[in-house]
Fold FAD-binding domain-containing protein.
Amino acid sequence: MTMIKKAIMIGAGPAGLAAALRLKKASGIDCTIYEIRKKPATIGGAVNIPPNGVRLFNELGLYDALNTRASSASVMTIAPTDKTPLFEYDIGEACKNTTGFGVWRVLRADIIEVLLAAVQHEGIPVVFGKTLTEVLEAPETVKITFDDGTVDSAGILLGCDGIHSSVRKLHVDPVIEPEYSGVSNMFAILPTIALVAPSTTKPAIQMTFISDGLFSVVPCTASGDQLYWVYSRRIEIPGDEDSRDGWEAFGQKAIQELKTGMFDALKDVTGQWGDAIRGLISATDTIKFYPIYKMSPSCRWSTGRCILLGDAAHAMQPHLGQGTSMALEDVFLLSRLLESGPAQLDESFRRYEELRRP
Ligand SMILES: Cc1cc2nc3c(=O)[nH]c(=O)nc-3n(C[C@H](O)[C@H](O)[C@H](O)COP(=O)(O)OP(=O)(O)OC[C@H]3O[C@@H](n4cnc5c(N)ncnc54)[C@H](O)[C@@H]3O)c2cc1C
């Protein structure tokens, strides 16, 4: 067992909030979470939570809170471009039969709201609007500094600050950079009521492979009143500069092309389903563009008193819908190692990497 009395989490996303909740409840460790955003926020959209994630939300005591918000629609349909499904499978039922837990599609905002409420219920401070500038490690402690001059210190620092992690860049592995995966997503949330074609309200996970990508539609609330659609396709990095500005301008152009050229990209999708997809896009006012980055497996994950969790360590492409669940698995393993693992922190970190990297 590692004698840690206080932990700091950088990032109030799924990894940071879940880590604080788990370490406080399982080990009585005092936690403080620092978040760069000024208030709770996400990139928007919804996520798929497979049974490994649902099980860990249950372990956190949040099953009911999320189950009443998430869609549990579980029939997955993979459609070709005409109306006959290539493949139809009750993935939720199959998961329940083998693991005891089904699958959810849930709004990111709902996950954060539920986790945040639980964290606040435990009295764990979440401090918003904090930009990390320095991490300094000593043998018994790690000290952090923010751009407003404030400092804090703890026995362990958890970098839960996502793919563009400052804990990683400032301290754990300053050399490594996330790589663009070559794939970008365009996505939107749409009230079901806005739809022209009623067939898409069928509660199921629908995926269609078109000539240059994947178009997927899923309900993402328990009542089915909101749908999440995502169009995922290969897009070359714009120009030479991989800058945020370049991507923003490029994203706007890609969205415009999708809206004006949607009949082109989707021309092979025929029948009622094709009409439904076109109806979905034309009924959508705001489409978001998200270039997908990933971390190289060679990224360093820890130093003496700092460790990376979730996307900060191992952001992956989203097509298996495992990112959030992988972050939760990180949290539970780290908690177990701190609670009943080796006495030395570096040995716990070594075990964590040994078990998580594969
Ligand atoms: C398009 C897309 C679709 C996806 N679909 C799915 C899916 O279906 N299912 C699924 O499980 N996963 C999906 N993912 C992946 C999933 O979003 C992530 O794996 C998951 O959110 C990781 O959680 P995290 O807490 O590690 O990081 P994040 O969710 O990125 O949270 C990091 C937090 O840290 C904050 N932060 C950043 N920098 C700092 C800093 N310097 N200081 C303080 N705070 C900071 C951020 O504001 C944020 O609140 C998808 C990802 C993308 C991009």
About this structure: DSSP finds twelve helices and 17 strands in the chain. The chain has two domains: 6-44+108-178+295-356, 179-293. The first helix runs from residue 14 to 27.
